[in-house]
Amino acid sequence: MAVGAEAIFGESVITTRLDTAINWARESSMWPYVFGTACCAIEFMSAASSQYDLSRFGAEVVRFSPRQADLMVVAGTITYKQAPVLKRIYDQTCEPKWVISMGACACSGGFYDNYTTLQGIDAVIPVDVYVAGCPRAPKPSWMV
Amino acid sequence: MADTLANLPKDIHGAYEVQSTFLIDVATFLKKTLGYTLLLDITAIDYLGLPDAPKRFALVYIFRNPTLSAPIILKLWTQGMAPSLCPLYHSADWAEREVWDQYGIAFEGHPNLRRILNHHQFKGHPLRKDYPITKGQWCETADDLMDQMHARLAHHRLTTSKELTFLNLGPAHPATHGTIRTLVALHGETIRAAVCEIGYLHRGFEKSCENHTYNQIIPYTDRLNYCSALLNNIAFAHTVEGMLGITLPERGEYLRVILGELSRIIDHLVCLAAGLVDMGALTNYWYLYNPREKVYTLLSKLTGARLTNSFMRIGGMAHDAYEGFEADVEACLREIEAGVSDTLGLVAHNRIFHDRTQNVGVICAEDALSYGLTGPNLRASGVAYDLRSIAPYSLYKRFDFEIPVGSVGDVYDRTMVRFEEITQSISIVRQALKQLPKGPVSVEDRAVSLPQKQEVYTTIEGANGELGFFIHSDGSGTPRKVKVRPPCFPAMAALPHLIEGGMIADAILSLGSLNIIAGELDR
Questions:
Q1: Which of A81, A85, A136 to probe by mutation at the B interface, max B CB count within 10 Å?
Q2: Looking at chain B, which residues constitute the CATH 1.10.645.10 domain(s)?
């Protein structure tokens, strides 16, 4: 049973809220900014290659400028030396923006519990999704 | 002077002990008279708490003559100061900066003695035994590097004029292939001066080794050169096996050769794929990456992990190869050959490729040796130095292979040397598969005792060059010190030499052609 425009035009029209439509467009074309530092960045490169194909999610447009991206994928270990750089790049990304913390090092420092490594990037920037793995293999990753 | 070396006392580990006042004379003699033109590494050992040491620190210098099989190691006891070898070897520059950063030993006469791996607001010297491993220190801002830039401009006799623009290439940049930063002074598009900053991926590998057992260190070694993780495992395990005086059974050694050469191939494939993408040749990225996926599937089937395998163990490996492994390896090799052949079909006679890579980023043989380059980077400059043939380890004496060598030392040579090395490695793997015997893969004796107190330096030919491990053992289950001699560390130090005078686009290609892997560079 449909009402209004949907009743008149049948299945060729759907009506929804503007926000829902915009969000659907956004989620189907996330443009990642890969803040790749270490081994997880190599696995990201594999995820973007033909076998695992990131473009299934509309995300093959890997933008290397934070100003043109909406999703920041932090792939790799972040050291104390890198932390101010990470913060600055995050600040430069325009809203709306999301952050995926890819790999054990970005989530919690990995097994580098020492004087150099940030024990989790959430000390510096807010994180939306934590993806564990060392390194995170592409296949399970992008199912998230 | 001819008996200079003979006069020096040798310590029990085979290193020549030299006094601080004679260091420069001995090094000059080694370089100019005996032909030890490669200063591979400088590191230090902190003897705090050990009873027999005459002074707190000892500096260890590792020299190599590219035509001889064994390196020469010099040892200098010091309480905290030593003369700098910068006037003699360019590779001393960054090596001494690292020793200053990690140990606090000052080098007199060093032009730019400042931290290299830890950040500029770091206080203390972390590899000293009295620095607690978990004491991290926050860094609030990135270093602007302008003081080093002014010094570099002065070195080139260029005053800071309004015509110069300063640009940061990195540390978050797609073309740097890792977190590497180069500050360049541009006149239009031409680079007049460049200053490199590294350490953005310094993860404390060496300090971590000091409180882990030998087998626990294997996963850390994977993450050094993460593109060819198995080669790092092999280098470390090989060093410790040398300390224990054990050799693997034949099947184990053959599997190490097969897996090592496969790792070398996939490392070169990443370097080539990324390098070609930097020139705009994107199709080759897929052509070279698809065979890599096949190798990853094989490694995942064998070891459980695609990328950071942690497969080798001290005395062998985690387990034997599965049924059907040889057929899988042969299938991978065929895919790799197809991918490389497709790529070379597009690239080898391509006018654009030639124009972009020939005579770009040139380094001559003498400079390459002075900077400490090894591996394909050095071979591209015309020096036929490959540890698999000069100092064959494992079973390399049994295989027939050639060493490809370039002539100019430009990006073209570095690229084509890697293509040819892939072909040679495929040939070695095929020979090894034919000769692969049955039998155990690891040493039979399960209860091997701990390594004795010793200081050893052992090396293999890694994908990027001479990958060495210097281990100082105090007889316990954890090493007292582990130093990696990373082949891309001196290559990065040579980058300003390669890019100054060229344009930004050329700098990107030069950087790509050196195959700098940040995990290995920064440790």
A1: A81
A2: 225-515
